[in-house]
Amino acid sequence: MAAIDQIINFYVSIKDDRRITTSHISIYMALFSYWNMNNGQNPVFINRNSIMKIAKINGLGTYHRCMKELTEFGYIEYSPSYHPVLGSQVCLKQL
């Protein structure tokens, strides 16, 4: 799927989704940037600190809540890694 289609479909999907906040959008955009740098291929491997910095999210609780909810709401698939070197795995779902 082309990057423009992915982003358009995301915004169409969230338009009427009252559960989505600016924090969710910010984190999704940071994840999208990783996905785009990976030529639109899933999965992407992320580093929590990098995503938080790009998304301008400072609270760990906010980050974890948003990642959990983006997964529950069907926007991403998230497999956290507890290894200090290996990144967590994220797939952006086609919407």
Write structural notes for this entry.
By secondary structure, this protein is an alpha+beta fold. It has one domain (3-92): Arc Repressor Mutant, subunit A (Orthogonal Bundle). Helix content is 52%, strand content 13%. The chain contains 4 helices and 3 strands; from the N terminus they run ααβααββ. A 3-stranded antiparallel β-sheet has the order 1-3-2. α2 crosses α4. The longest helix is centred in the first third of the chain and has 16 residues, at 22-37. The model has no long low-confidence stretch (mean pLDDT 95).
Give the rounded overall mean pLDDT: 95
Return the CATH class.
Answer: Mainly Alpha
How far from one another are the termini? 10 Å
The biggest sheet amounts to: 3 strands, antiparallel
Assess the beta-strand content as a share of residues: 5-15%
Physical arrangement of strands within the biggest beta sheet: 1-3-2
Task: Provide the gyration radius in Å.
Answer: 12 Å
CATH architecture annotation: Orthogonal Bundle
Sum up the overall morphology in one term.
globular
> SSE order, as H and E?
HHEHHEE
CATH topology: Arc Repressor Mutant, subunit A
- Quaternary structure classification: single chain
In DSSP terms, counting alpha (H) and pi (I) runs of 4 or more, how many helices? 4
Poorly predicted tracts of residues: none
